[in-house]
């Protein structure tokens, strides 16, 4: 393996070695067999489902990615923060009451936890969930204080006749963000037949469910009155969104450049798309649903329908995978930033190619040929 030959000297071309970063992040951590302090969120693993381990995430931080972006944290800062985060691991079913109380609270609750032995350092990077550095098997756990529950959350979690899908839709419509909804779903607080849900599954499920609800509303709106291009960058993830007036269609093309985290020695390009419905799980995994959610939020806010192309270019700057929240927030930043109106599709395609840095994505698109050859009812 190149890593064995390289030993962190940068032969791979990445800005920072993901392997060595585990050791750098470990330096300030002092393992202990107890913890007393804030538990802003919960985590449930997927290994061995349905008998899964779960517990609180313990760190003096809000554990809310939009806050990290607003504070200007860099990848190093986030990795260091997550390296100090402790994931409490116990039988999720046995800890369900405590997990649910933490998830319900609008303000982080404090916990007092005894572990069976000092927590172990095991910083792992994943494409869906944010990394966690420390893990400890829970011997005893007490939640200190009482949960403060928002009215909308209380209504959705108290109604056991409400399906999980409907609960997600109602919570989102009330202004509850997807990060909070994911916590509620993970803790087994939503739906008719309730059970804890592995965090990685809950993240994608909430993005998918909420964006489907928005997609249905968008389908009833009039089309945009012009072609628009948006762009933004976050942690080496460059996002370009091209919106064309018409009924809802969505396509996403991902480009992992040479020497990028998962690009290896050659460029990798992948795509997926949909019309008013979609079957099967996206080959682009959670990133697809996170990007679709961000664009759907924008179209709902302006009450217009559109055909959408999202381009994602991942460079070597993205040296540690931080989770699909990066794609969600990068796309949100793009849609909330300034838009560039374009006179025609060719101008928009050329602009998108300049913004993303190349035009090699074009042969992979199925939406662009459709837009250039087919007329819609809106054009008559």
UniProtKB/TrEMBL annotation:
Residues 278-380 form the Archaeal Nre C-terminal domain. Belongs to the Nre family. Residues 11-262 form the Archaeal Nre N-terminal domain. It comes from Methanoculleus oceani. Pfam families: Nre_C, Nre_N. Contains a predicted C4 metal binding domain at the N-terminus, which could be a zinc finger DNA binding domain. A zinc finger (C4-type) spans 3-17. One of its GO terms (biological process) is DNA repair. Keywords: DNA damage, DNA repair, Metal-binding, Zinc, Zinc-finger. Involved in DNA damage repair. This is DNA repair protein. GO terms for molecular function: zinc ion binding. The keyword RNA-binding does not apply. InterPro entries: Nre, Nre_C, Nre_N.
